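Re: your question about Glucose-6-phosphate isomerase

S., sorry for the slow reply, the queue was backed up all week. Below is exactly what I fed in.
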Amino acid sequence: VGYDNFERLLKGAEAMDQHFSCAPLSENMPVIAGLLGVWYQNFMGAQSHAVISYDYFLRDLPGHLQQVDMESNGKRTREDGSTVPYQTGSVIWGGTGTNDQHAYHQLLHQGTRLIPVDFIAPATTHNPIGEQHPWLFTNALAQSQAMMQGKTLEEVRDELSASGMSTEEVEQLAAHKVIPGNRPNSMIVPEKITPETTGALIAMYEHKVFVQGTIWQINSFDQWGVELGKVLGDRLIEKIRSKEETTDQDSSTNGLIKRFKQ
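Result:
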């Protein structure tokens, strides 16, 4: 990356910080994203959120956002010590471009789970080769449109009939090709993936997490669940190192330590 590019990334993040601090709520990207996330999760029953980038340079973004979001807002206790009576934190996952279309987009379009999606597709590429980038962007746009509009039973019947299928064949297949649509998704279209836009994207998601934590009345800045695993690890390493049989843990842990030592 280099120091100069890192400085540029910080400038992009600072620009988003200023936007979050000063922009009206109706035009504030982190606020809108945070509110949409609360709406989909707490009112529409969504349990996960996909981030799908159509640029190879953002291939690791979903993994980074998993830590940003799930480590921050995966909490069950409010700041006043009471237990939250609603869902907090979303399962964040995703990947890159057209490869993912053949992995899990079927679930997004016709599955029984409501999964909001962020599509990130830059308008300009670093590697212009023929029509490769226009086609890549078109794929992202088409997936977004398909999630929004879907395809009705009437549209499927008309399409199949026009292809020459008999009425009986149409009725056998039609229901399977219906896509309900109205699946929430956002298209984020930076001009180009640069250190500045990458910094702004990361900062946008960070502020989104803060907005949601504030609404849920949880502290987004501690990780006591992670801390417990570290404390237990410090204790269990002594059991792993010991040549003696471990019998003072729970039966599952005793058995797993025994298996490791075999």
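The CA atoms of residues 73 and 89 lie 5 Å apart. The first strand starts at residue 48 and ends at 53.

Happy to talk it through on Thursday.
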